[in-house]
Specification:
Blueprint lengths: L7 E4 L3 H13 L3 E7 L6 H5 L2 E6 L10 H10 L4 E3 L9 H9 L3 E2 L4 H6 L3 H10 L7 E2 L6 H11 L3 E5 L8 E4 L2 H19 L4 E5 L5 E9 L5 E13 L2 E7 L6 H17 L4 E9 L5 E7 L6 H8 L3 H9 L16 E8 L1 E2 L5 E2 L2 E2 L2 E3 L7 E5 L6 E2 L6 E9 L2 H13 L2 E3 L5 H9 L1 H4 L7 H4 L1 H5 L10 H25 L20 E9 L2 E9 L10 E7 L2 E10 L2 E6 L2 E10 L2 E5 L4 E6 L22 E6 L6 E2 L4 E7 L2 E6 L4 E6 L6 E2 L6 E4 L11
Parallel strand pairs: 1-2, 1-4, 2-3, 4-5
Antiparallel strand pairs: 6-9, 7-8, 7-9, 10-11, 10-13, 11-12, 12-15, 13-14, 15-22, 16-17, 18-21, 19-23, 20-22, 24-25, 24-31, 25-26, 26-27, 27-28, 28-29, 29-30, 30-31, 32-34, 32-37, 33-36, 34-35, 36-38
Helix pairs in contact: 7-8, 12-13
This protein binds ligand MV4.
Ligand MV4 binds next to strand 9 and strand 11.
Length: 689
């Protein structure tokens, strides 16, 4: 049977979901049109699409939410269909209607389904008719305080007041006793009116420790409907999902079938078409209750794809094009377990304040059949303040939950981002905590495990903090060795140890001194190079001393990866170099550090000739004036190389250069005077003492 397909679709979204949709369309040979705002001119989704149309200024309401511009872009590019992704216009009934009026296929449900689910009370009435279990409560049209209070007293406290027009936890208020009811109702109505311009309320029995279990449903235009099992999305913070998993821990086959069938009933009750998600609350006693239905593809759909082996965007494209569902219920099964962690530019230590800035360093875990990364950004991109600060979704799969969880924590420990604050460490700690490992999960998970997630040190399996300082020092020493080796290649005898430029001395211990600023703490470090005759850059051994504690350290540096052994403990760490500001990522933490280079006289405004000594071992690179020159304060005199950087040493005051003590290419001991300089204009020749 020929498969009807679109030739060209427009993606009315941005970021990771736009990239994800384009990937499937490209695989199916469907041409794609991206839309972009001022903030996304260089965005990944624009570069991935076959065509791209500018739709306006960075604020969403002037671009991604302006459906007239989106529709015009589809017309101008002759796109037959529009995929809305999630968020933005994905549940906008007016947009859906406008697509239909313009003969452009909206890849999603009919407008009636979107409208039916737009109101909590209307949705509940529909589900009640369909015998879908509802939380005990009241969702009638009589909104008098007396009627609402009567229903609360009838069901017993605690109850939950919910705004009919609300969603995502907005406009909810718990009421624990009758005497709190009146004030709580006034507050809830005021908030709802402010947020939704509608203060109608429904009252529900408050379930104190429910789980959020959602069922993925799919319906075609020929009355076929299937469910693709469940996702557990209980781990949320302020109604934002943090880590989701599929299947739900502890789900029995019977309960799965009951919830799946209930979800299908929900969908069929509104003549649903396309991808939909029915959200339930699962109580501790195994009873489940309809919460709401989302008429879009969810952010967390990839974990369903991982356990069913299906591409849900391909299903959406097929169903929107009028095809029947690719599989029947009996052909669907669960294989393994998957997690999704949402990587955000936000600061968990600062109440999860959204972060913006440049992804100056971005190294992801290796992707494979076990690890998938859906992202809309690359290294060097800016995370904009105009949109959701999601950087990516890290999705992992394995044969069972324990194995999948190991994949998750390992992948999180290999996810390196610098230049912007992220929630990666928070996610790693959450996934590593005991309750999560035991799947002791409900919607109050973060609240109940707050201390272990935010404060406990038990998550740091090894006390590697002290070791981290030695790793930072080792990195600097190896990097210097690499750079000196690179410099000596330019000398006339690259193999001569005299040209190694890393302060090697014949028959002398090879001492280095460096000062690091680690997490805003200045640390003085000395190191003795212990390598054989000639230092090599592939690996080197040092005795590194920090705060009078000396540890043997050796390692090899390749690009941003340091394979190190500190005091017998081997580890692999990644270092992000952000123009001399470094971030060192271990498997459980990260530190920031930079070199503190002593003043080489560049800043020497005291006029004291003392700034003309070498602060550490290095190499003379160039003499910039003749012997006997009369110079002015600040004139450049010599250039010296120390720790990978060249430094211009300047005249501390007006005077005369009498004699240089080193020639270009000479190695210079730390502390050696570089030249004889006097403040006089015509000095008698002063012999060096
Ligand atoms: C509830 C509930 C307990 N009892 N309804 C949160 C947002 C919206 N999806 C509905 N929510 C809840 N409704 C009754 N009768 C607890 C929540 C709830 C919650 C639900 C799922 C996932 C996370 C949550 C976090 C806080 C509260």
């Amino acid at each position: 049977m020929s498969i009807t397909r679109f030739n060209k679709i427009l993606i009315a979204n941005r970021g990771e979901i736009a990239c994800r949709i384009i990937q499937t369309a490209r695989r199916l040979g469907i041409r794609t049109v991206a839309v972009y705002s001022d903030a996304d001119i260089n965005a990944l989704h624009v570069s991935m699409a076959d065509e791209a149309v500018y739709i306006g200024a960075a604020p969403s309401r002037e671009s991604y939410l302006d459906f007239h511009r989106v529709l015009q872009a589809a017309k101008d590019t002759a796109a037959e269909a529009i995929h809305p992704g999630y968020g933005f216009l994905s549940e906008n009934a007016d947009f859906c209607r406008a697509c239909k009026e313009n003969n452009i296929v909206f890849i999603g449900p009919p407008v009636e389904a979107i409208e039916a689910m737009g109101s909590k009370s209307a949705a509940k009435n529909i589900m009640q008719q369909a015998n879908v279990p509802l939380v005990p409560g009241y969702h009638g049209s009589d909104q008098s305080p007396e009627r609402l209070k009567k229903s609360a007293n009838a069901m017993g406290y605690p109850v939950l007041l919910k705004a009919v027009a609300g969603g995502g936890g907005k406009g909810m208020r718990q009421v624990w006793s009758e005497n709190e009811f009146d004030e709580a109702l006034l507050t809830a109505k005021r908030e709802a009116m402010n947020a939704f311009a509608n203060d109608d309320m429904l009252v529900e029995k408050y379930l104190t420790q429910p789980r959020h279990i959602e069922i993925q449903v799919f319906c075609d235009q020929h009355n076929n409907a299937v469910y693709l099992f469940e996702r557990d999305c209980s781990v949320q913070r302020r109604h934002q999902k943090v880590i989701e998993e599929a299947p739900a821990p502890g789900m029995t086959a019977k309960l799965r079938e009951q919830m799946g069938e209930a979800a299908i009933c929900s969908a069929q009750a509104i003549n649903y078409q396309g991808a939909g998600t029915v959200e339930f609350l699962l109580d501790e006693d195994g009873a489940f209750y309809f919460m709401e239905m989302n008429t879009r593809l969810q952010v967390e759909h990839p974990i369903t794809e991982m356990i069913t082996g299906q591409d849900l965007v391909e299903w959406q494209l097929s169903v929107a094009a009028g095809e029947i569902l690719p599989l029947k219920q009996e052909q669907l099964s669960i294989n393994g377990h998957a997690f999704e962690a949402r990587i955000y530019a936000e600061d968990p230590a600062n109440d999860f304040l959204p972060a913006s800035g440049k992804l100056s360093f971005l190294q992801t875990p290796k992707t494979s059949q076990y690890v998938r990364i859906d992202t809309g950004v690359r290294q060097g991109d800016e995370v904009s303040v105009f949109y959701d600060p999601m950087i990516s979704k890290l999705i992992v799969w394995d044969k069972d939950r324990d194995k999948a969880l190991q994949r998750l924590t390992k992948a999180l420990s290999e996810y390196y981002i610098s230049g912007i604050t992220t929630n990666i460490d928070f996610l790693h700690r959450l996934a590593s905590c005991e309750a999560f490992k035991k799947a002791d999960i409900d919607t109050r998970f973060i609240e109940k495990n707050y201390d272990e997630i935010f404060y406990s040190k038990t998550n740091d399996k090894k006390n590697t903090k002290g070791e981290t300082y030695y790793l930072a020092a080792l990195y600097c020493l190896l990097e210097q060795a690499q750079n000196s080796a690179a410099n000596s290649i330019h000398s006339n005898d690259p193999n001569s140890p005299w040209h190694s430029g890393d302060a090697w001395r014949l028959n002398e211990s090879n001492n280095h001194r460096l000062t690091l600023n680690i997490n805003d703490q200045v640390i003085d470090i000395t190191a003795e190079q212990l390598s054989s005759k000639q230092p090599s850059t592939s690996s080197s051994r040092f005795a590194i001393t920090i705060n009078e504690k000396t540890l043997l350290a050796q390692g090899a540096l390749t690009s941003n990866t340091l394979n190190a052994e500190i005091d017998g403990h081997q580890s692999r760490v990644t270092i992000a170099d952000n123009n001399g500001d470094f971030q060192l990522f271990t498997d459980s933490s990260a530190i920031r550090f930079n070199r503190v280079l002593p003043d080489l006289g560049e800043a020497n405004d005291t006029g004291h000739a003392g700034g003309l000594t070498a602060p550490m071992n290095g190499t003379m690179v160039a003499l910039l004036v003749e012997t006997g020159s009369v110079v002015k304060k600040g004139d450049a005199l010599v250039v010296m190389e120390a720790m990978k950087m060249e430094h211009t040493i300047r005249a501390p005051q007006n005077g005369t250069v009498i004699e240089f003590y080193f020639q270009p290419g000479n190695l210079v001991d730390g502390g050696a005077e570089l030249l004889n300089f006097t403040a006089e204009e015509k000095p008698e020749q002063k012999l060096k003492p």
